[in-house]
Amino acid sequence: MRCPFCKEDNDKVIDSRSSEGGRVIRRRRECIECKRRFTTYEKIGESFKLNVVKKDGTRVPYDRDKLIVGLQKACYKRPVSAEKTQEVADRIEEEIFRNYDKEVSALFVGEQAMRFLRQVDKVAYIRFASVYRDFTDAGELLDEVRQAIAEPDATDQPNLF
Q1: Tens of pLDDT along 38-67?
Q2: DSSP state of 25
Q3: Nearest Cα to 86, choosing from 96, 107, 71?
């Protein structure tokens, strides 16, 4: 694999892990020449078509970049690294691919994003929830904040981060 920084073809794998429900292998690599680290993804060459069913019933192709942009907006100016954002996206995708083959509801994607953001950063969680749940007044937002504060890790699974 060529280093994206110095373009040399001399690296070592530091860490490998499965992602997207075992459909992708994520590898952290370190360039032997410049000592910088980068991430690569290995996927099986297949035509992958997952559609997201939106609230209005329309179907759009699943787009990981769109998910990451939403997570980045929620984490803007928060102490959440780009790697952590990618990890949250990986976890969301693992849940999607574990539960769905051809179509997934936008509701499921949004709920998973909130679930994982809540464990990473409560402010990012509230930001995401305020857009996703489309609060109509400040009272609804305050209720969500109170619930997030009152129940520190109110998830159905242990902390995954």
Answers
A1: 999 887 655 568 899 998 999 999 999 999
A2: E
A3: 71
CB atoms within 10 A of CB 54: 13
Read off the DSSP letter of residue 35.
-
Contact in structure between 4 and 38 (CB atoms under 8 Å): yes
pLDDT digits (tens, 9 = 90+) for 101-155: 899 999 999 999 989 998 898 899 888 887 777 667 777 767 777 777 776 554 4
DSSP H or E segment with residue 14: strand 11-19
CA-to-CA dists, residue 36 to 8, 13, 31, 86, 102, angstroms: 11, 12, 6, 18, 38
The per-residue pLDDT for 158 is 46
Per-residue model confidence (pLDDT) at position 52: 94
71 token code pair: 């997570």
Query: In the block, which residue shows the tokens 């032997």?
Result: 32
List phi, psi (to 5°) of 121: -160, 120
Residue of 44, 92, 41, 32 whose CA lies nearest to 68: 92
Distances (CA, A) of 142 to 89, 113, 152, 153: 27, 20, 16, 18
Domain range summary for the chain, segments of one domain joined by +: 1-47, 49-150
Work out whether strand 103-105 and strand 51-53 pair parallel, antiparallel, or are unpaired: parallel
